[in-house]
Amino acid sequence: MQQNQLPFAPVRARRRHLVASAAAAACLLLSACGSSAKHVATSTDTALPTPSASPSPNPTDTAKAALLTAYQGFWNTAIQAWSQGSLDGIPINRYAVENADYLIRSGLQYYVSQGLVMRGRPILSPTVSVLNMTAKPYTATITDCIDTTNFYPVDKSTGKPVALTSPEHRHPGTYKARFDVQWWIISGSIDRSRTC
């Protein structure tokens, strides 16, 4: 065993000498070997943990959030128009285009012709049921259960609530959307023959 270790002894001595020389040179370059140096880092010192980068947002989650924001904007526009009985000052085309724009306008036209305005707000429970981001333009479908218990028509001149023909207030809705620079609601319908 000793014979096997002998050839490595001179190499070890040279290696120690080289390491010591390298350490001395590094010490001179860094000026850290004076009496004021309190600690010299060694290979056994533990490094401070590097802060982990926050995970990048998932494109699907980002798209869904933007889509639901557009859907809420569509409803806010419709509610505002139907509540004030006009489109004055309402940016109707900010979230609604095509058939969705027509839904807001035709709803308004109906209420005005009947001398009605809406009061309150519907309770929305939207979910993105389809999101197609494989082809452009991106498309999506939102399904909702729209609760109109606290969203009702009143006579514009008297402010009195109008009697409704159906006691049911929760109906499923389906809305289509398209992405073109932003998400747009392009069509929608409420199935009043069913409840949810």
Topology (SSEs and partners):
Blueprint: H1 2-5, H2 8-30, H3 59-84, H4 99-114, E1 116-120, E2 127-132, E3 139-147, E4 151-155, E5 170-180, E6 182-190
Antiparallel strand pairs: 1-4, 2-3, 3-5, 5-6
Helix pairs in contact: 3-4
Explain the overall architecture:
The N and C termini lie far apart (86 Å). Helix 3 (59-84) packs parallel to helix 4. With 196 residues, this protein is of the alpha+beta class. 35% of the residues lie in helices and 23% in strands. A four-stranded antiparallel sheet has the order 2-3-5-6. It has four helices and six strands, in the order H-H-H-H-E-E-E-E-E-E. It has helices at 2-5, 8-30, 59-84, 99-114, and strands at 116-120, 127-132, 139-147, 151-155, 170-180, 182-190. The protein is globular and about 55 Å long. The model is unreliable at 1-48 (pLDDT under 50).
- Quaternary assembly: single chain
Main-sheet strand order equals 2-3-5-6
Tally of separate helices: 4
- Strand percentage, roughly? 15-25%
Low-pLDDT regions: 1-48
Residue-averaged pLDDT, rounded? 79
Distance between the ends: 86 Å
Q: Provide the helix percentage.
A: 25-40%
Secondary-structure class: alpha+beta
Task: Let me know the number of strands.
Answer: 6
Question: Over the alpha carbons, how many angstroms does the gyration radius reach?
Answer: 35 Å
Along the chain, the helix and strand elements come as: HHHHEEEEEE
Describe the main β-sheet briefly: 4 strands, antiparallel
Shape: globular
